[in-house]
Amino acid sequence: MDYNTQRKQLPLPEYGRTIQQMVDYCCTIEDGEERSKAAHTVIAIMGNMNPHLRDVADFKHKLWDHLAIMSDFKLNIEWPYPLPNLELLSEKPEKLPYSENNFKYVHYGKFTEQILAKIHEIDDPDEKDALISVMANHMKRSYMVWKKEHISDEIIFRELIKLTKGEYEIPSDLKLGDFKEALVSNSTKNNSKTGRRKTHKRRK
């Protein structure tokens, strides 16, 4: 048996092995005019694989870049676009910087802590109250979605005070939503999964 794992690795697997074989054949054509015609035919086939991208700017340019890569830059034709830079292609991407900051309340999220840590920068008391109301409700809903259980407003207020480092006093008339739909949706999902598992067992 001839397995793909035993064959030559494809430089651009998304085009498939048949297209790669066409490109390899183009490189073996001795006549320059015929070789150029074959290259344009391959480009047309590659383009037909993604018809929704035909109107995208530089789509044709990208196809010719892909053809150059698939031919290992050995296809001797008159290229309609400048060839891609080999050095840039071989460069490894830079590592993404990951935050190493540990945050205490995972269920509220990092941005919740960051926003509340800067609450003191707001001078307008009405704007500050509005932000606290929004964030407190967001905290309660996030907790219920994450923990799948109810939480009292008092606990949210206590943790909110900790997150604001005691720099903000919770208004006495502030009331939070009940967010029962968060628990209902979670319960529905769990029941659905349990039902599927039971059905699966019965079929066995």
Largest sheet: none
Shape: elongated
Counting helices, strands and paired strands, the structural category is mainly alpha
Overall residue-averaged pLDDT value:
83
Please give the number of β-strands: 0
Poorly predicted runs are none
Topology at a glance:
Layout: H1 16-28, H2 32-48, H3 59-70, H4 86-90, H5 110-117, H6 125-147, H7 153-163, H8 180-203
Helix pairs in contact: 1-2, 2-3
Q: Can you walk me through this structure?
A:
With 204 residues, this protein is mainly alpha-helical. The chain has two domains: 9-88, no CATH class; 110-183, no CATH class. It is built from eight helices and no strands. Helix 1 runs antiparallel to helix 2 and helix 2 packs across helix 3 (59-70). The model has no long low-confidence stretch (mean pLDDT 83).
